[in-house]
Design a protein that fits this description.
Elements (H helix, E strand, L loop, with lengths): L4 E3 L4 H14 L2 E5 L5 H15 L3 H4 L9 E7 L4 E11 L2 H11 L3 H29 L9 H5 L6 E7 L19 E7 L5 E6 L5 E6 L2 E4 L7 E5 L1 H6 L8 E6 L5 E8 L6 E2 L18 E2 H9 L18
Parallel strand pairs: 1-2
Antiparallel strand pairs: 2-10, 3-4, 4-5, 5-12, 6-11, 7-10, 7-12, 8-9, 8-11, 13-14
Helix pairs in contact: 1-5, 2-5, 4-5
The structure holds the ligand C=C1C[C@]23C[C@@]1(O)CC[C@H]2[C@@]12CC[C@H](O)[C@@](C)(C(=O)O1)[C@H]2[C@@H]3C(=O)O, 2-oxoglutaric acid and fe (ii) ion (FE2).
The site of ligand L4NPZUNZ has 17 residues, from strand 4, strand 5 and helix 8.
């Protein structure tokens, strides 16, 4: 199956139409010619590699994940596990600088690599959200991106490492085979607005557009992958659906991924704009709520739980 590819060097109106089509059909697309400088990516990759290569006791200085910080095998607070270790950071420059002290022996180098990456990827996320608003004919073109640009945005950066499985000598490593694969990161949707994900050249990411059918996403370190998150589903009044995805470890090479989760400020009220609740479906599918309320609920549930149903509007709302 051909997954949608958005080439940002193409004509703007074509790009915005393509993004909307991809979000409607898959809640997911690949971005090429994205403009994030290669040295910004390499700088972060180098820091991530050296962090994950540290002895466990040193990595644990940045943990436990509360939910920010270093975590290993346990995902969230509700018993989810996977063959993954990770470092989750708030994207606020001050918070990055503070956290870097417990993460790296060269905090200023680590902090500058993370901040540089966050700045470039946030810019890309905002550009993609403006194009999305244009494609949807939402009159306020920066309605979505404003939430991520806000100084109080609750956006986060997650660095994932799926280590080589030492018992993998008999594994079939062909991308189409899932013989003996293990779950690295179980099935879920991302709660935020847009996720911008990139990885090294090792596969494992899969998306599901139909219950029980998983589509492997071929790795491409030169590209970004975009996931529609739960908040964009709400702000498009269900026209886009947040994509269910997971990461498997079926390779003998370790997988590394970097995910920027573009989120609103905690107190931002999340609701679809008037254009998204226009006739023929003049009803808002979801009741208004703040990102803080949604996040609290999401983080109190399991990874794979459907959370948006709890925020559906009732007829008498
Ligand atoms: C089990 C969980 C981990 C998670 C919080 C949650 O309770 C449900 C959502 C999970 C998720 C998925 C996308 C991101 O990786 C993440 C950081 C997020 O915002 O929501 C994780 C949460 C986490 O690992 O803390
Ligand atoms: O590592 C991956 O490719 C997926 C990671 C992911 O889904 C997440 O961090 O939420
Ligand atoms: Fe995810």
């Amino acid at each position: 199956m051909e997954l949608p590819v958005v080439d940002l060097s193409a004509e703007r109106s074509e790009v915005s139409k393509l993004i909307v089509k991809a979000c409607e059909e898959y809640g997911f697309f690949k971005v090429v010619n994205h403009g994030v400088p290669q040295d910004v990516i390499l700088k972060l990759e180098e820091q991530v590699l050296s962090f994950f290569s540290l002895p466990l006791s040193e990595k644990q200085r940045a943990g436990p994940p509360d939910p920010l910080g270093y975590g290993c095998k346990n995902i969230g607070f509700n018993g989810d596990t996977g063959e993954v270790e990770y470092l989750t950071l708030n994207t606020n420059p001050l918070s990055i600088a503070q956290r870097s002290i417990t993460i790296s022996n060269n905090p200023s180098k680590f902090s500058s690599a993370v901040s540089g990456y966050v700045q470039a990827v946030r810019e890309l996320a905002c550009e993609l959200l403006d194009l999305t608003a244009e494609g949807l004919l939402v009159s306020d073109r920066s309605l979505f991106s404003r939430l991520i640009r806000d100084v109080d945005s609750d956006s986060i950066l997650r660095l994932n490492h799926y280590p080589i499985q030492l018992d993998s000598k008999d594994w079939d490593t062909s991308p189409s085979s899932h013989a003996n694969c293990k779950v690295g990161f179980g099935a879920h949707s991302d709660p935020q607005i847009f996720t911008l994900l990139r990885s090294n050249d090792v596969g494992g990411l899969q998306i599901s557009i139909e219950d029980g059918v998983w589509i492997p996403v071929p790795p491409d370190p030169t590209a970004f992958w975009v996931n529609v998150g739960d908040m964009l589903q709400v702000m498009t009044n269900g026209r886009f659906v947040s994509v269910r995805h997971r990461a498997l470890t079926y390779s003998r090479k370790s997988r590394m991924s970097m995910a920027f989760f573009g989120a609103p400020p905690l107190q931002a009220r999340i609701a679809a704009p008037p254009e998204m609740v226009a006739p023929p479906n003049s009803l808002s599918l979801y009741k208004p709520f703040t990102w803080a309320e949604y996040k609290k609920t999401a983080y109190s549930l399991r990874l794979g739980d459907t959370r948006l149903d709890l925020f559906k509007a009732r007829k008498d709302d």
